[in-house]
């Protein structure tokens, strides 16, 4: 079976592959499909992404970035996810959660020190926010940063950290004034060679297995004052504003996974024959699976793109950033399930070879029909970057606050 390809450049609306085909999208798509589909690990990815210019999409050209907006960042996330969910997840953690935060909140000295190597791919970035006891309730974090002469001493740990094993530059949130609650959090830039910092257990995950995740441990980790990102005790503002944009950019992940599921399913049902004809010609397959998958993909794209364009115009809506990833994630899980159904038994097996019972069918491997992986990868977005329940709560709370303001 061929690598996923565009099935529909004949759509008068240009919807099947994108609502707005752009040179940026096609460039990313071509590079991703040719370089990342065979990859299951990240060893050689970073400098390739740097050479493509993707590690600094939203960063000013003066620091080596492209100077584009969140719409293009979401497009990059989408096309990378279409080629590899794992590569895309690690890319999002690096380019949005680390690089974009340093660009938005860092001092000039911090930007000059960290951004060039992060954008070129020479160094890997990460965000450390969640802890074993504080996931959704992130401001209840217990990582402590105590002031000392010339800097800070950190003690505690972080958990579920994407890129943790390989990251050399990390944005880390810690309590600097625990008695102030959420108003006593500070953001820091940590380097992996800081004394007292280490990575521990690498986590064995259900999906996104090519994206490394681990626990971080801080044992009397000493960091200088110049490592403070933003202002002392003002880290919750850095954190919350970053979460809105994180949800938006990562919404591209479910979009890409949906497109990949659709690509594989459509090609398969037009090759697989039963009762003497391709199964894709059966009305039930056309209506229940292909048509439903197609409309879910494009409805999700329309929402994500609209929110991204609004953000680029300065209209960042917390409820819509949450809504974009909420909706696209639910649809991505559904589309992956429908894709698995289209492939029948081949959608369910892992790592074995079989021959389709047709004289016209070649020997194929289940690795060419990775619908199970698509489903496992899509499930990450139901709990990563906030759970679906937290997203629903945020949307409801935003409307409650809006209603109260009009009373």
UniProtKB/TrEMBL annotation:
Coiled-coil regions listed: none
Entry keyword Ion transport: no
UniProt GO MF annotations: 3-methylbutanoyl-CoA dehydrogenase activity; flavin adenine dinucleotide binding
Ranges for domain Acyl-CoA dehydrogenase/oxidase C-terminal: 233-398
InterPro entries: Acyl-CoA_DH_CS, Acyl-CoA_Oxase/DH_mid-dom, Acyl-CoA_Oxase/DH_mid-dom_sf, AcylCo_DH-like_C, AcylCo_DH/oxidase_C, AcylCoA_DH/ox_N, AcylCoA_DH/ox_N_sf, AcylCoA_DH/oxidase_NM_dom_sf
Biological-process GO terms, alphabetical: L-leucine catabolic process
Domain Acyl-CoA oxidase/dehydrogenase middle, residue spans: 127-221
Domain Acyl-CoA dehydrogenase/oxidase N-terminal: residue ranges: 43-122
Cofactor: FAD
SUPFAM superfamilies for this protein: Acyl-CoA dehydrogenase C-terminal domain-like, Acyl-CoA dehydrogenase NM domain-like
Keywords, comma-separated and alphabetical: FAD, Flavoprotein, Oxidoreductase
Family under the similarity heading: Belongs to the acyl-CoA dehydrogenase family.
Protein name (Swiss-Prot/TrEMBL): Acyl-CoA dehydrogenase/oxidase
Organism: Boletus reticuloceps
């Amino acid at each position: 079976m061929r690598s996923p390809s565009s099935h529909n450049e004949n759509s008068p609306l240009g919807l099947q592959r994108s609502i707005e085909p752009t040179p940026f999208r096609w460039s990313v798509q071509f590079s991703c499909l040719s370089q990342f589909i065979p990859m299951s690990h990240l060893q050689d990815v970073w400098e390739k992404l740097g050479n493509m210019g993707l590690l600094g999409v939203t960063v000013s050209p003066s620091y080596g970035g492209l100077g584009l907006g969140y719409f293009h960042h979401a497009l990059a996330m989408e096309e990378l996810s279409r080629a590899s969910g794992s590569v895309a997840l690690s890319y999002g953690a690096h380019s949005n959660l680390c690089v974009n935060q340093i660009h938005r909140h860092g001092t000039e000295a911090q930007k000059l020190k960290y951004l060039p190597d992060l954008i070129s791919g020479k160094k890997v970035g990460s965000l450390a926010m969640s802890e074993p006891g504080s996931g959704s309730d992130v401001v209840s974090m217990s990582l402590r940063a105590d002031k000392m002469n010339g800097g800070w001493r950190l003690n505690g740990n972080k958990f579920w950290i994407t890129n943790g094993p390989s990251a050399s530059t990390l944005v880390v949130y810690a309590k600097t004034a625990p008695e102030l609650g959420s108003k006593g959090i500070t953001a820091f830039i940590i380097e992996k060679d800081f004394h007292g910092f280490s990575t521990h257990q690498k986590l064995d995950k259900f999906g996104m297995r090519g994206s490394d995740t681990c626990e971080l441990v801080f044992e009397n980790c000493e960091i200088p004052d110049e490592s403070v990102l933003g202002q002392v005790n003002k880290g919750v503002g850095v954190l919350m504003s970053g979460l809105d944009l994180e949800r938006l950019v990562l919404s591209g992940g479910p979009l890409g996974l949906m497109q990949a599921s659709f690509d594989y399913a459509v090609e398969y049902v037009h090759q697989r024959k039963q009762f003497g004809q391709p199964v894709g010609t059966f009305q039930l397959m056309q209506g229940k699976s292909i048509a439903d998958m197609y409309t879910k993909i494009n409805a999700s794209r329309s929402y994500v793109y609209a929110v991204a364009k609004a953000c680029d115009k300065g209209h960042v809506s917390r409820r819509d950033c949450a809504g974009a990833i909420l909706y696209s994630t639910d649809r991505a899980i559904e589309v992956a399930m429908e894709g698995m159904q289209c492939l029948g038994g081949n959608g369910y097996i892992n790592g074995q070879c079989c021959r389709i019972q047709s004289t016209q069918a070649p020997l194929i491997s289940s690795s060419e029909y990775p619908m199970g992986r698509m489903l496992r990868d899509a499930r990450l977005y139901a709990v990563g970057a906030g759970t679906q329940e937290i997203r629903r709560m945020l949307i409801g709370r935003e409307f409650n606050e809006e209603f109260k303001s009009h009373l």
